[in-house]
Amino acid sequence: MPAIRAQDVTKRYGSVTAVDRIDLTVEEGEVFGFLGHNGAGKSTTINMLLDFARPTKGTIEVFGKDCQADSVAARKHMGVLPEGYAVYDSLTGREHIEFAMESKGVEGEPFDVLDRLDITHAADRPAGGYSKGMAQRLVLGMALVGNPDLLVLDEPTSGLDPNGAKAMREIIREENERGTTVFFSSHVLEQVEAVADRVGIMHHGTLAAVDTIEGLRETAGGGTKLLITVDTPDEAHIETIEATEGVDSAWLDEDGQFVVTCEDDAKLDVLVALDERGVDVVDFSTEEASLEDLFVEYTRGTA
């Protein structure tokens, strides 16, 4: 049974369509990264998953339970780390976990949860004195109470320093190894690339792509990109590059390099086309496309 299944889901706010007929299946046991620019429909989709918003049409299920018609049963499968979370400054870490246990009707030892998050040393300190990373892990600990089948994490590494982000990645991996399905959104694409089995990319309210990262690479030009340095960079050259057969897209990056996603056989043709236009190619190289490159590709509407 899938952990999440969305079928023909649309959400409109008046004349604005925030989510447009998306179909998505997240399998039990996988780590799924959910990506999108601000306004792409990502947060709206998560809100419908949590029954904070209701679809205009279509259905979303969590382990076979309809998130709207049977929202209480669906939420019993979930632990949630929301974006913009807050802790109770005067309550200790242990008291936060005890509160979560009482709210969920779960018995257990709070220190077992705190130990999974490596914050037992601060269990009896007021959470208002916790660092950003510790507070983030504490709220995640509240989500982990009851060992949910599905973790929904909205921007779990937002605002964390590199050490805090690394610790969060390790926790995600450990919980997944316990059998938990993880569905998380993030704008830090390196974090997603490090842990996700598959990713979904939202663009203008639709799912532009759903695949493994390797699958996205293969679709977007064979998995590598061509980096070209020219004597006088000019965006006008993009038209020449994109007119070459086998090229998917091209753009000028902030360093003044042309970045080209294309079939492997087209790379030499791109260099020849530039030379024929009198463009002086100073240097070129190829490298594997990162998730950031793929995100740019799919949200440019060219893939």
Automatic annotation (TrEMBL):
<protein>
    <submittedName>
        <fullName>ATP-binding cassette domain-containing protein</fullName>
    </submittedName>
</protein>
<dbReference type="Pfam" id="PF13732">
    <property type="entry name" value="DrrA1-3_C"/>
</dbReference>
<dbReference type="InterPro" id="IPR025302">
    <property type="entry name" value="DrrA1/2-like_C"/>
</dbReference>
<keyword id="KW-0067">ATP-binding</keyword>
<keyword id="KW-0813">Transport</keyword>
<feature type="domain" description="ABC transporter">
    <location>
        <begin position="4"/>
        <end position="229"/>
    </location>
</feature>
<dbReference type="GO" id="GO:0016887">
    <property type="term" value="F:ATP hydrolysis activity"/>
</dbReference>
<dbReference type="GO" id="GO:0005524">
    <property type="term" value="F:ATP binding"/>
</dbReference>
<dbReference type="InterPro" id="IPR027417">
    <property type="entry name" value="P-loop_NTPase"/>
</dbReference>
<dbReference type="InterPro" id="IPR003593">
    <property type="entry name" value="AAA+_ATPase"/>
</dbReference>
<dbReference type="InterPro" id="IPR003439">
    <property type="entry name" value="ABC_transporter-like_ATP-bd"/>
</dbReference>
<keyword id="KW-0547">Nucleotide-binding</keyword>
<dbReference type="InterPro" id="IPR017871">
    <property type="entry name" value="ABC_transporter-like_CS"/>
</dbReference>
<dbReference type="Pfam" id="PF00005">
    <property type="entry name" value="ABC_tran"/>
</dbReference>
<comment type="similarity">
    <text>Belongs to the ABC transporter superfamily.</text>
</comment>
